Give the backbone structure.
Amino acid sequence: MSPYMWMWVAIVVAGVLAWATKYIGHVVPQEVLDHPRVQRIAAYITVALLAALAAVQTFTTGQALVIDARVAAIAVAAIALALRAPFIVVVALAAAVAAGLRALGWG
Amino acid sequence: MARLNPVRQQALSVSLATGAYAISFGALAVAAGLDVWQTMALSLLVFSGGSQFAFVGVLGAGGTAAAAVATSTFLGLRNGFYGVGLAPVLRPMRGWRRAGAAQVTIDESTAVALAQPAEDVAARRQGFWWTGIGVFVAWNAITVVGALAGQQIGDPATWGLDAAAAAAFLGLVWPRLASRSAQWVAAGAAVLALALTPVSPAGVPILAAAVVAVVAGWPAPRTRAEVPA
């Protein structure tokens, strides 16, 4: 199979798993997922994965750790979030900062 | 607008606000190498913002499709718990209705449903369905716009789309950092992922960060304030 077809397989599998995860919550007896430890770990998994994704997306290119325009952009995004800016504004600001710095020849 | 009660108004405004950032997802997915059809399929089938951004984020960083699926699925685990939290609101449910409810069980539909007074089950149910279906329609429609725009713009770095992806993850994690313990988990996960990046295949550092969550969540919290939201 071509890489393009494999990507389709991955998309469909991700979709089925996403739906199955949601569906299980609607059919299991309530006690099963009510365990405090299970709930704590589940909440932390969301935090851990999102934080790791943010870090990798900001500070790496391939397997190298790098400092470039993205670092300035994420700093501006953090300030915007602290000021309670809407999500779409935060994302657009970060893109604008990185694009602006690169247009000036940095990062 | 005269016929829109407060629950429906809330559902509608959440739908539009959430749908709007599908434009960044669409553009980022195309920048990561997916075509417009694949991008649309992700929004239709996966339909969970964090999982979708993660899927294309792992691909964009050079990770394998398998790593993208795994990361996307782990990030979607929380949706499983939403169904449990919604049980008093939505059960009993059967067949297609339950299958449909599952598809639109996301952060936003759960939040709007549970934001209604606990004793008003009808309002909670209405909040869930109006927000779930509203976000589904807006999210999928605006994904197409983002993907088509993404096709037109050439090198994504010139437009700062790589930085936009980083900011999207920061924006998604931000509301979950209210407690000190969550902040430590986030910091630990970020440091671990960066430390592993030079020495492991793409995608692995992010999955490994889940270990931090298990280690932090295993022991019972000493104080009430440590329980994550």
Remarks:
- Chain A touches chain B through 76 residues (CB under 8 Å).
- The mean pLDDT of chain A is 92.
- The longest helix of chain A spans residues 3-27.
